Amino acid sequence: MKLSYKISQINDTIYRISLPLPGNPPYINVYCFKGEVNTLFDTGISWTWRLLQKALHEIGLQFKDIHQIIPSHGHVDHYGAANAMVKRSNNNIQVIAHNADAMRIEKGVYANPLIMLRFMQSMGVAKSLIVPLAILDIMFKSMGHKVTITHKIIDEVYTLRVGDYNAKLILTPGHSKGQMCLFIEKEGLLFSGDHIVPGVKPIILAGFEPNTSFPVSQSHAIFHNALKKVEKLHPNKIFPAHGEPFDGKLDRLINTYYKIYQLRKQRIYTVLLNNDCTVYVLARKVFKNLKGINLVLDMYLSLSETYTHLEAMCSEGDVIKYAFDNVIYYTAALY
Asked: What predicted TM-score, i.e. pTM, was given to this entire model?
């Protein structure tokens, strides 16, 4: 991971600070709104808080000048540095997040190692990969120090001040239950978090929710409905958490997302017509280019994406699942 940052000025008071991440994607965009209410939308991971501090200094701000932090959702690359910032501001920074992801941010609630192990075994993961995947999960936790949320949003649309603008936080679940986009209607600017990412369809993660012993699949239907909600905003420009900003022609991108979803379902169904499969076997067949230095991380993500596709297909009646010897198998439903 290259320890450097990049600052891009969007307009007189809005800045994009790109901070490094280990693996792929290689960086996250933190958006700073400077003005009446100095605001950060996302923070990067805990490992890079000093880089964020330096970048803010370049645009004339210190941690103590920040009024509020808004993690777009409860994944470590989006809230990981918030704790370090709050501590170094004498606890003067407000942290705002949606209640649906509050537990993850405040308590770092993920699966405990035994639950994760049972999940990996039930997915049929090769024994040689179980330990590396468990280590990866521990590494994820080290990237995000839990932080107290001072204001938990329960509404689907919440209005607030960021910088010198009136803005809306819009709940767009799918990638996570509490994923939010930030929209400045006056300028037509949409800050999309991980809901919309150029060049790649966002992963619909299988989330371990509090007090569950098995991941709760995030519905693809919920994700696509949230895309329609954002499309109706007609943004002029979109600023994602990963990748470069792009003009707000969402219809083509949303159609591409949907085509990818349908193509993967078709590919999964074709494989299952020939053989019953575990999630792991299907992931290796659907995502064929899993290799190299990012194998473990890519496998982690592809397992989740495959699992959520299968759960959606079960709900739609296209696939049937059954358990044998503590391993879950999927088979094509024949009409």
From this structure: 0.92
